[in-house]
Amino acid sequence: MKFGGTSMAGTERIRRVANIVRAQAAENSEGVSSEVAVVVSAMAGETDRLINFCREANAIYDPAEYDVVVASGEQVTSGLLSLTLQSLGCKARSWLGWQMPMKTIGAHSKARIETIDAPEMVASIEAGEVAVVPGFQGLSLEGRIATLGRGGSDTSAVAVAAAVGADRCDIYTDVDGVYTTDPRIVAKARKLKAVTYEEMLELASVGAKVLQTRSVGLAMKEGVRLQVLSSFVGDDAVSADELPGTMIVSDEEMDELVEKGLMERQLVTGIAHDKNEAKIILTRVPDKPGAVAHIFEPLADASINVDMIIQNVGRDKGETDVTFTVPQADLARAQAMLEDKADLIGFNRIITDSHIAKISVVGVGMKSHAGVASTMFRALSDRGINIQAISTSEIKVSVLIDEDETELAVRVLHTAYGLDAVD
Amino acid sequence: MKFGGTSMAGTERIRRVANIVRAQAAENSEGVSSEVAVVVSAMAGETDRLINFCREANAIYDPAEYDVVVASGEQVTSGLLSLTLQSLGCKARSWLGWQMPMKTIGAHSKARIETIDAPEMVASIEAGEVAVVPGFQGLSLEGRIATLGRGGSDTSAVAVAAAVGADRCDIYTDVDGVYTTDPRIVAKARKLKAVTYEEMLELASVGAKVLQTRSVGLAMKEGVRLQVLSSFVGDDAVSADELPGTMIVSDEEMDELVEKGLMERQLVTGIAHDKNEAKIILTRVPDKPGAVAHIFEPLADASINVDMIIQNVGRDKGETDVTFTVPQADLARAQAMLEDKADLIGFNRIITDSHIAKISVVGVGMKSHAGVASTMFRALSDRGINIQAISTSEIKVSVLIDEDETELAVRVLHTAYGLDAVD
């Protein structure tokens, strides 16, 4: 079970979480009790407070000491949840990253989990004690605290689930599952009983911020059955068995669910939108071998993630316009870098636009069906929405449109693919 | 070097501390640079905030999880001081209790330091890196975080100083040294250049809250030269060599200082007061063997510290009044416990009084001189101050008086022993 910062914000909310954990650990109606490990985030706002301290202390901070400071937030909530569980008569103890130990590799503040070999913790869980694990933190090769980067607690949870051979990894969030699209935009959005890892990866990477992308990838690799569900479900804490959210499963398990009639096979599973990209157009780039490499190599070296790329052959022979998108946060840096290389690349003008949105339709069903993309283009064009760029993967079609048309496009597509809930 | 919570309260104050540390680590006027380890407390108020969380989580908290929560305060400041030192161009890194490791024994939340075997930390210090150590925390035998109890950071500092074989352990506080008495009461109080461990122990135990008693005891045992000095010394950070506070030294070193004319040998070194005691009188206790044991055994079992004890043979034969003092915080508990045992002890009435103060004169000089006590009694009686009880040790005479007369008594005695500063 994993609980995020909003669920852990203050001792009252922690008591709520403790009730949910106790309900899960207790015997269910069939007389089966669960062995439980819980991964917790810091109290909402605490990590930002600690990061601010670090910035005030040293603008160019040493990530190893930054890790010492920020990892304390999860240490506090893991102790407090253990204490609260004990007050409810539920045996519990905390296992800090260095105690377990959760061994990590890679740079401080963006470490990656390498191995969890925690026989003591497993024995404690088997003896009926709830293991409470601070998310986001592990132990470096040098024996120091290493954090996994923002949102790393989801990944901690999946890694712990894999290490203890858990039946399921339940991620409790402030939404109660994965929806066909953002319910704030489309009132008729439906909660999905299940999505596949690949679908969730595509949805996570295009702005459906339910799970951290890395955690989904790890779950897929390790075969951990993930479930997304809400920790805000009224006053009576119930176990996940009684109030399920959305399961994230393998293709095979999805096939079984469809065969059993528990899921309907859809062409499109969900529709995501992302307003955090920015578009860059370089005009009149020489259309010769190597020109494009001059553009994208320096961006890659600077770890700027380029997403959609389109090359339009220009009106003038031997020249072309190159359009691509980067995260809005990196736009200024990318632009400066490109202007720096203007002579090498040989473009005429650089045009940028942050006022764009990426709309994506995602579904494993489209692997075996043509026509998904053309339905999208037709539906958008029928409502006069102009498509600025297109990119596709095996289970996703994305288009770039004017940001003002985001909500309209999402609603139009939700209806076009037959996703609207029936009253 | 050890800095308390007031000195560490916020990133601005931590920058001040970092400047003091850097000045100490840098070359002095003789071209000698110091190898430095720094022990830090949590930001003022932070430990109380964390303790409150624990109480809210579980009124009868598990001290092992309590330790996980409260130790985070020092973890944060050790990381922040390291970052700040680095920003000033001073190499530094944090060494958490479990990393060093500082091995402890005894119960969680009041553990005692057993050994510090930290070759890596020593190597790092010798390589010119400032070691920043969170106070108050160590590692238990079971490999968990163990805290030393409130004020434990002073003890951490002395233990680290002993472990690394430091020339000196400088305790930076919000006062600039040890005074002949509380300067808020006596304007003519003088800062002492040096006191002996024994004197400091007596002064610490009777209310001069400059150093934690346990840390002085450990320093005496390990032969660590302690210095008390202020971290608030104007804007220019200077090293302790340039602005000394009060040294706490052995009897032998004190003799040397006197021989060299650096210190004057005084009969009385300082005068302390303590308003945190309460008096209990049990009237008409049977004057027979074992009666007193019935009173004090249960108090000792409950860890209630009984200080002064007087037995007055009563007016009636075979009966006696027993007077003693306990910490005010334990008064209610002690009273309830005694009333519970009323039949066994066989007293007539229980009379309590919190409105008392203990005044102590302390000095190694009195070992070899009679008349110190009589000077005290004479001086107090000349001003009409009634003495309710007396207790003595080899280097201390304490009396119990009415709390309202505290300041008067301290001033009278400060003058009587010739301690007033000469303008």
From TrEMBL, chains A, B:
One term of GO molecular function: aspartate kinase activity
Annotated pathway: Amino-acid biosynthesis; L-lysine biosynthesis via DAP pathway; (S)-tetrahydrodipicolinate from L-aspartate: step 1/4; Amino-acid biosynthesis; L-threonine biosynthesis; L-threonine from L-aspartate: step 1/5; Amino-acid biosynthesis; L-methionine biosynthesis via de novo pathway; L-homoserine from L-aspartate: step 1/3
Keywords (A to Z) from UniProt: Amino-acid biosynthesis, ATP-binding, Kinase, Lysine biosynthesis, Nucleotide-binding, Transferase
Entry GO terms, CC: cytosol
E.C. number(s) listed in UniProt: 2.7.2.4
Pfam families named among the record's database cross-references: AA_kinase (PF00696), ACT (PF01842), ACT_9 (PF22468)
Keyword tRNA processing: no
NCBIfam families on file: asp_kinases, PRK06635.1-2, PRK06635.1-4
Protein name: Aspartokinase
High-level lineage: Bacteria, Pseudomonadati, Pseudomonadota, Alphaproteobacteria, Sphingomonadales
